[in-house]
Protein 1
Amino acid sequence: MIQSIRGMRDVLPEEGRRWRRIEDRIRDVLVGHAYEEIHLPLLEATELFSRGVGEATDIVEKEMYTLADRDGDSLTLRPEGTAGCVRALIEHGLLFNQTQRVFYAGPMFRYERPQKGRYRQFYQLGAEAFGFPGPDIDAELVLLGYQFWRALGVTDQVRLELNTLGSGQARADYREALVAYLTPLADRLDEDSRRRLTRNPLRILDSKNPETQALLADAPRLPDYVDADGQAHFDGLRRLLDAMEVPYVVNPGLVRGLDYYTHTVFEWITDTIGAQGTVCAGGRYDGLVERLGGRPTPGAGFALGLERVMLLLESAEGAGADSAADVYLCVMDPAHQAWALALAQKLRDALPAFRIRTHAGGGKLKNQMKRADQSGARFAIVVGEDEVARGAPALKHLREDRPQESLTVDALIARLSAAAD
Ligand code: ATP
Ligand code: MG
C-alpha cells in the first residue's frame, strides 16, 4: 500500500471543518485590516532562498526540498513565504513609490524532524508590509496577531515576546563582538553552536544547551549594541503596544532563525501544545528587498503556523465533534430527484449559512435517515409522492423530540431561518 510521505499530513473532513473555521476567522481579521491576498508559486529558483533566507540558516543549510528541473535548473519547494513575496513585488514593480500590505496562505516545505507541531509540509498564513520605515507598522503587525487570538478566544493562552536587533550595522557589530567572545570558548560550546559560531552566531543565543547558556551569561549583550535610532524605533513600538494595553515581555535572547531580520523581532508563544509553542513569528527586514535586487525598501511581516494554532484551539476547547451538514434532504423515489434538487437549491439561496446535503444513491428511506443521522444534521427533509403533490416537504427534527411537520417551501425556509438564531 502506498502511504503518505513522512511529515506530510492528511487533513481529513473532521479536522478540515475546524481548519476552515479557524482559517476563516484569521482571514477575516486580515481583510478587516485591508490587507490584500496574493497567491504565489510553490516552486521558486533555489537561489531566491539561498540569497533571501540566507546561506547560513538552518533552512538553507539542511531543510530545503531542492530538485533539478528537466532542463537542469535548480528549483526549491518554498520553505517560507517572505522571499517569494518580495520577489513577486519587485518583479511586478509594486514596491516603487508605493506601499503594500499583503497576505498569503498556503503550504511550506521543510525537511525537519517531524513531531507534534512540526511537519515537513505545513500551512502558513503570512502578512507583509512594505514601504513603512516606522514602528507604527510593526505595532500594526503585532496587533494583527492580538486580534487573531481575540477572534479565536485564546488571548489568555498566548504571550508576546519582543526584541530588537537594532539596525543592520548594530547587528553586524554585535555579531563581531559575540564571535570574539565565544571563539576562545569554542570547545565548551555544544556541537550546533560550534558550527553556528562561524556561520550564524546570533542563533547561538537561542541554544537550549545549559552549558552554552552558562557561557552566554558573561557574553556581550545585544541591547548594548543597539544604536540610538534602533532604540527609538523599539521605544516607539513599545509605546503603541502599551497604549493598546497589549502585554509583552522583552526577551533579549530572541533572535529568530532567518538571516534577514533587523530591528523588531517578535513571537507569539503558547505553553499549551508542547515544545513547538511558537504559533506566530515575525519582524522587520529592511535589507531584504535590496538583497533580492530591488531598491532599498523597508519591510516587516510575520507568519503564523496554522497547524499549531489548530493544536492550541484543540487544547483550549477540545476537538469537538462538529457536524458535517445542517440539513439532510431525503428523496424517496428517483422520480422526485429533480424536484428535490430544485428545493435544495432554493433553500441554499434563501439560507446561505446552512450546509444542505441532498441524498444521493437512492435506497430505502430508513437507510437514508441513517445517513442523515450520521451526518450530524439537525434536520432531515423528506421528499416523497405526497410532499411533491402538495408542494409541502416534511421536516423532521433529528436532535429534538418534536413531531414531524409538513410545511410549504416558504414556511420551511422561515422555520429553518428561525432555528438558526
Ligand atoms: P521554529 O523555531 O518553531 O522552527 P521558525 O523560526 O523556523 O520556527 P518561521 O520560519 O518564523 O519559524 O515560521 C513561522 C511560523 O511557522 C512558526 O512560528 C510556526 O508556527 C510555523 N512553523 C515553522 N516551521 C514549521 C514546521 N516545520 N511545522 C509546522 N509549523 C511550522
Ligand atoms: Mg524552524
Protein 2
Amino acid sequence: MKKHLLSLMASLACILPSQAQVKVSVHESQPGAVIPAEIYGQFSEHLGRCIYDGIWVGPGSDIPNVDGYRTDVLEALRTLKVPVLRWPGGCFADDYHWRDGIGPREKRPKMVNSNWGGTVEDNSFGTHEFLNFCELLGTEPYICGNVGSGTVEELAKWVEYMTAADGSQAELRAANGRKEPWKVKYLGIGNETWGCGGNMTPEYYADIYKRYNTFARDYSGNRLYRIASGANNDDYNWTRVLMDRARWDMNAVSFHYYSVPEWYNKGQATVFTEEDYHTLLRKAVAVEGLIQNHIAVMDAYDPEKKVALFLDEWGTWYDVEPGTNPGHLFQQNTLRDAMVAALSLNIFHKYTERLKMANIAQVVNVLQAMILTQGKEMVLTPTYHVFRMYNVHQNATYIPLEYEADGLMSLSASRDDAGTLHLSLVNPSLTDTVTLEFSFDALRPCAVSGEILTARDVSAYNDFGKAPAVAPAPFKGSKLSGGQLRVTLPAASIVVLTL
Ligand code: AHR
C-alpha cells in the first residue's frame, strides 16, 4: 500500500505544476554592446500576398489607403518601429528586373513569379513604390540585387537610378516623378546564391560578389553598406571562403536559418502536440550555436570585427493554411510563434558585437508574419506583439544577467539612454510558474511596470472577425522591495518589464 502511494505521488509530481525559484543577478555596472535597432528588421518579398494585399492595394482600392499603401498596415508597422525593410526578395530578387517596375504602372510588363506559385506579377509595386513606402514608414531600405539572372550593368544602373543626383539615371527617375535621389543604405549582392540565387559554389560566388560590388558605386553622398549573400544554416565553409576571399570588399555577410518542424512534413501552424512544441522551440534556440560558429569563423579572419554578421532571414515555416496556394507560404501564427520570436530575440541581444541585423520572414501574410490581412480586415499576430513589446531594446545597451535555470527559460536586459532598464522574460514551460528574484549591482529601481503576453493555450491565435485570443495585458506579477525585484512568471508567458 505504502509503495503504491509513493509511486502515485511520484507520478503526480511529474504532472502537477511546480513553482521553480531562480535568482538573477543584474550586472548593470558591466554594460555590453548597444543592441542595434536592425536586430528587429523585417523582410518583404514579392511572394504570395506580402506586397499585394498586404502592403499595396493601389490608390484606386476601396480598402483605406495612403497613396496605394494600406492605412491599417502602415499604422501598425509604424507602431512597431521597423528599423529596416528588405526587398524585393528572397528568391524573387534573382528573377527581378528593376526596369520592369518603373514608369506608368499600366505600361509595366507582366512576369510569371516562377519561385512562388506561378502567380502573375504585374510590377505595379516597383522601386518608387518601395522606397516611398520606406520613407512613409521611416525605415531604412535594404535592396537585394539580382545577381543570379541580372547583369552587372543592371545592378550598377539600379543603384545609380536610386541614389544619383545627376546623370541619365537621375533624369529618368525625375521623369518618373522623383527628382531627389533616395537614400539607400543596405545593398545585398544576391540572395541564397548557393541555391535559388544561382546554385553557385562559395569560391565562384566570392569572385562574382567582387565583380558586381565593384560597379555598385556610391553616388551623391550616399554610402552603400554592402552585404554578401551568405550561408545556409550551418554551412561554415561558405562563411570561411567569403571571409578568406572577399572580406575587404564587404561590410557584412549574411546567413539564413528557419525553424521548421521537418522540411518534408512541416505540420500546421495551429495544430501541434506538446512534443512538437518543445521540438520546435529547441530548433529555434539552436540558432545560438550557429551564430557562435559563424562568428568564430569570422573572428579568425577579422578579429577587429569590421565585417558584420547578418541573419537576414529567420522565423518559423509550416505547411500553408489549408486551401491556400502552396507557393504563397501563408501560415497562421500562435503563441508558439511568439515564443520562438521572444527566445530568438533574447539570443540575438547577446551577440551584437558581430550580429548587426536580423530580418524576420516576412512582414505581412507570409511565414512568421507580423500582420495578416484578408480583404479589409487586418489581424496582428502574437509575433507582432512580441516585436512591439520588445522594441524598447532597440538602440539600448545590453546588460548582462547571471542566472541558472532549467529548460528553455530565457531572460534578457538592456538599458536605454534615459537610464530605464528593460527586462524581457520568457517562460516557455507549459506547466511551471517560475519565481524570479532579481538583485542589482548598485541600481535601486523605484518603480516597475510591465506587459504580459500569454493565452489559455499555446496554440491560440488571432483570427479574422474574432476578438483577439492573444494580446498583451498589463502585468501584475512583479514587486519591488528593499532594492530587490520579485517576479512571478506564469507558464507559457512572455513579459517585458520597465524599471
Ligand atoms: O522567405 C522565403 C524564402 O526562403 C526566400 O525567398 C528565400 O531566400 C528563402 O529560401
